[in-house]
Amino acid sequence: MTQQHPSGASAPASSTHDHGHAGHDHGHHHGGAGHMHVHGSTNETRLAWALLVIVLFMGIEIVGGLLSGSLALIADAAHMASDAVALGMSWAALRIGRRPATARLSYGYRRLEVLVAFINGLTLLLVSLGVMIEAVRRFAEPQPVLGPMMMAVAVAGLLSNVVTFLILNGGSRENLNMRSAWLHVLGDMVSSVAAIIAAGVILLTGFSPIDPILSIFVSVLIVRGAWQIVRSAGRILLEATPSDLDLEEVRADLIAQIGEISDVHHLHAWSLTSEQAMVTLHARATPGADPLRIPAAVCARLKERFSIDHATVQVEAEHCTDADGAGQAHEQEHGHAHGHDGHDHGAHDHDGHDHGPTREESATGAPKPPAAQCY
User: Fold this and answer.
1) Model-level pTM greater than 0.70?
2) Residue by residue, what is the 3-state secondary structure of 226-293?
3) pLDDT at residue 20 tops 90
4) Residue 220 in contact with residue 157, Cβ under 8 Å?
5) N or C: which end of the chain has fewer CB within 10 A?
6) Reading across the β-sheet that carries 310-316, which strands appear in turn?
7) What stretches pass through the bilayer (predicted)?
8) What are residue 283's DSSP bridge partners?
9) Are the CB atoms for 36 and 276 separated by under 8 Å?
């Protein structure tokens, strides 16, 4: 049996595998790998340039703060340092994510970018919380604000943030890692605008409470975006079904569009990254249907209708040899009975894409039904 893998895909070892299964075939369809590689390189380049701009301006602020004795400049430099760390982590995640898959990491390192996005989102939440606490404290203990110095720092910070924002703005918006880095810079840009407004009000009226008021307003906006990043990354890390995918719709569509199958069950979907969804399923063949034609038809339909490039399909002639809680619940709902033995698939550990022998297979030595994996 021959198994073909696209560049950067899951199986790192030899492309020829002998599973010892009669009729067990893996067919792979390439879709979007080159497109994602181009996006990855572009995102990495943009992050590198954005990081350079942030670090250079941060150095200027530190020197200016030390020479002038301005705490505002030092504080703003510290804030930009948190952005530099976030951008550096994002860049490193994309860089490391280009490494090829290994026997231990059969999907490679791409999910590292999701983990970094999750950490960046949490960092934004913590920074926003700190700003809110400081704003409340300043309401209780008002402090004098140097309007001219505040204006100069805010304008200079806005210029650097605008440059960085324009660099990142052309990156992929679907990539959570890029979105989290973009949100960091956007938060800084909005903060600079708010600081300019606050500095103008202070210079014209002397009303210093405008500073903490606008700080709270900006923090609320940042919290909203950061929470969306954390929630999206958390769903991917928990291997939840992609939010834009309805499993019941997928099941109904496959049965309606592919005449060779009478049922679809054990349907699972999850995401490797925000841009790459994956599906596994069992499909029951209709009487007289060629089971070897079904996997390719299912994979083609999943790609055409749902933009899913990676699917593992197991074809069954009669009874389902495997069962788990989700499958049993689905079959009870739709009135199917297949003689399940309570076998549990467990988590999505597709290292090598081998589901392992079932209890029935171990006891009788009978091979599993035909299956195929496709991209």
Assistant:
1) no
2) HHHHHHHHHHHHCCCCCCCCCHHHHHHHHHHHCCCEEEEEEEEEEEEECCEEEEEEEEEECCCCCCCC
3) no
4) no
5) N
6) 261-273, 276-285, 310-316, 371-374
7) 47-67, 73-94, 114-133, 145-169, 181-207
8) 264, 315
9) yes
